[in-house]
Specification:
Elements lengths: L1 H10 L5 H52 L20 H4 L7 H13 L31 E2 L6 E2 L4 E6 L28 E5 L26 E3 L42 E6 L4 E5 L3 H8 L12
Parallel strand pairs: 3-5
Antiparallel strand pairs: 1-2, 3-4, 4-6, 6-7
């Protein structure tokens, strides 16, 4: 038995250095070939999931409008007369996305303390709602912790259409808005309702309340203009200049990209129209996005090639 083992060990042949290097090279080539394909499949799945989220948001907004006669306010007034200061449209549609418990929490918390983050934060404030985020954005997967007060805020990658900009407010969802279907004179199939704008690094586009935005009106938080402008004297505009900021590629690391529609999908972004349909618009549509944002501008839409 000992002799047999010895012979077997003597006859055993291992990999040579050259063979190992060849095997490693082949594995590296296979990874290089397969990785882009895997990433492409993953992105296709993320884009489909994102479109599904926008479709559900459109349905929830339609159901709200059918019940109340108008689409929800982009944000409530920030004054003593409002029972829910700075509450956003994303809070108001909670019962329509199967989040009745969170809606009841919001009502109870606003009644207990109208200032949503002081002294006791509202229970929904840091909640991450999967429907309100795009799977392509790793930033919105976790709540953002603000440096100034240490509070955490759940983020959103989707914003309502306020129109051309926060000055015009000629879209559908903006501060104090109550826009009915009858007010969309350009036609629901030609008017934007919700679009993509990823939550960036080190910023707070929170879904629960309009934390600041341009002149604390909530713009760029949960609603946005297609050709947004800012006021350079406003401390909340991040020193990004006046604008206008237009539809085009962006980066999560650029704080100024919070002022325009874009996505982490290659070549464009997804939008829900007022008729409930969802379309992927390429960045070539920058020339018509302002026209699509108005509800009653009377523009003739000429779609780019």
């Amino acid at each position: 038995m000992a002799t047999t083992i010895t012979r077997f060990q003597k006859n055993k042949k291992g990999f040579t250095l050259v063979e190992m290097l060849v095997a490693i090279a082949i594995i590296g080539i296979l990874i290089a070939i397969l990785l882009p394909a895997v990433q492409k499949v993953r992105e296709a799945a993320n884009r489909a999931s994102c479109q599904s989220h926008l479709r559900q948001l459109g349905l929830a907004l339609h159901q709200y409008a059918n019940d109340y006669g108008y689409f929800p306010k982009g944000a409530s007034n920030d004054d003593d007369d409002s029972p829910t200061p700075l509450m956003t449209w994303m809070v108001r549609i909670l019962p329509y996305i199967e989040r009745e418990t969170e809606w009841q929490y919001a009502l109870e918390d606003y009644q207990r303390q109208k200032q949503y983050n002081y002294p006791i934060p509202h229970r929904d404030l840091a909640l991450v709602i999967p429907l309100y985020r795009c799977p392509s954005n790793p930033v919105s997967l976790y709540p953002f912790q603000a440096r100034n007060n240490g509070k955490k805020y759940g983020l959103t990658d989707y914003v309502g259409n306020e129109g051309v900009d926060w000055v015009e407010n000629n879209g559908i969802i903006f501060q104090r808005s109550q826009i009915s279907f009858n007010a969309i004179l350009d036609g629901t199939s030609n008017t934007l309702l919700v679009g993509e704008r990823p939550a960036p690094i080190n910023s707070t586009p929170a879904w629960y309340a309009s934390l600041s935005g341009i002149h604390t009106l909530g713009s760029v938080g949960t609603f946005l203009g297609a050709e947004e402008v800012t006021d350079p004297t406003d401390p909340f505009t991040l020193g990004c200049g006046y604008g206008p900021f237009q539809f085009g590629p962006g980066k999560l690391s650029n704080p100024c990209d919070v002022y325009h529609y874009w996505s982490l999908h290659p070549g464009g972004a997804n939008f829900t129209f007022a008729d409930g349909s969802v379309h992927f618009l390429s960045y070539n549509a920058v020339s018509i996005l302002g026209d699509l944002a108005t509800r009653a501008g009377g523009e003739v839409i000429e779609w780019p090639d």
